[in-house]
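Appendix B, example 12.
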Amino acid sequence: MFARLRKDQIVAPPGFNRWRVPPASLGIHLCIGSVYAWSIFNPSLTKALGVVGSAADDWSLSSVVWIFSVAIAFLGLSAAFAGKWLEEVGPRMVGTVAALCWGGGFMIGGLGILIHQLWLLYLGYGVLGGCGLGLGYVSPVSTLIRWYPDRRGMATGMAIMGFGGGAMIGAPLKEFLLKSFYQAPEYLGGASGLRIVTEAGKRFVEIGGVMKEVVVISAKEAAALPIPGAEGAYVVGTGSTGAAETFFLLGAVYLVVMLIAAFSFRVPAAGWSPKGWTPPAEAGRQAMITTRHVHIDEALRTPQFYLLWVILCTNVTAGIGVIGVAKTMMAEIFGSSLPAIVNGGFAATYVLMISVFNMTGRFLWASASDYIGRKNTYFVFFAFGTLLYLSIPFAAQQVSAHPAVMWLVMFYGATMLIFTMYGGGFATIPAYLADIFGTKYVGGIHGRLLTAWSIAGVLGPLAITSLREASRNTALHDLAAKVEPARFQAAFGTDVLNLDQLIAANSVTIGKLMELAPAGTVDPTPSLYNTTMYAMAGLLLVGLTANLLVGPVKERHYMKEEAEPALARS
């Protein structure tokens, strides 16, 4: 069996139709590209025990978002180190290992949800699944380049489009499965008819002489459930969000699809070329700054490599942080102000549209860079992107004071443009590297540059969740100070001096405090992401500065056997 995976066993016979290879590449990238729909899982994972609301021992949003960060980190690391191995064993072997890692990672993650062990989610989806992402990312691209030397841009675009658009299939599929597997927990009745005891921030109800932890939800929260229920108390540890079952099923589906795709890979015979095609004698001058080449190891000794590393890292950090919490952010900013519009279905569609614009941007911006230049393209990313990020706090502030659809439209448009530039950054960076270092070793240099993706996968979600958490805690303390002590005591079974305990146990939320606050109190929920957006705008200014500093490589870095002068581009 393993012999059939080796590179020398998958050489295509004469007359092989090369158009049989792109569907396999697209299939793998569509599977692994579903990572962009991770935020669909956030609400379910943060309520794994409470189901209808977060229980005291449920995982926090920041802790589950980190799983996405780990997966992206291992994607970049495995992609950077898999290039040489791919050349030795071929795409079928690498694709098979990617399928086992990605599908198996889902299954291990599902087990972690089932027994409520967060480290298994990190190990399965984060580490093992992340390696599957990286291996699955590099194998189709390198294979298609060999089959389409006459259309390399189109070939790599077919695969990378799949990765950018994977959430188009993944988001609605995950939503459907979560709702299908959802089971409401045991309902005890309205809170007013129960004797609820609060201990160390947790809420308990005595049932048959046994104190059982409960989650108490309002009518508004009950109406927002996947299957709307009644307000009141629900027993913690009963029911299911459907997350574990969804992980198990998706793991099996991804494993089968990716294995079929991997076994469809073939590599062209030595010396093969498309019928009627003649290799160009010289690379097009419009596409490159230089026709000379910098060795892969020498590239690491140039300041240009590190400037481009910062460019990619800052562009990805800003975008990936928002992708990781997209659904949650949309619901928190507009859910309370425009509840008739921004419901669960709207937020899920928003995640889907992120995938659409991410995918579209990979084609449009990369194509535009052929005409306006890579440096100018990234200038647009950073300069215009900064303004877009700054517009989000403005829209959040306005919708809090004056709820109107126009602010939602403004937010929607700004974020979609941001995601086109996020995807465009991935598609444009290989051409930027070719402009600076030549084409001979651009693949290996690109692989090493992808470590910036790994770092960004950690920095983005860390920044957005940390800053949001700080804003949330500040908002909770400010709201609690406005609530009458007697009303607070009646609602939570303890006084406001124990607020931090209640916050830690997820017993107090902004929504519950807003129900107790005086009339006219402004809901702070839409502004939870303001500091995050300011930070992302500042990060883009760092990328803008790095981009402005990029220039041609100095003469001493070029390979000595290359004697022709560098080409300048106007």
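Residues 405-437 form the longest helix (33 residues). The chain has 20 helices and five strands.
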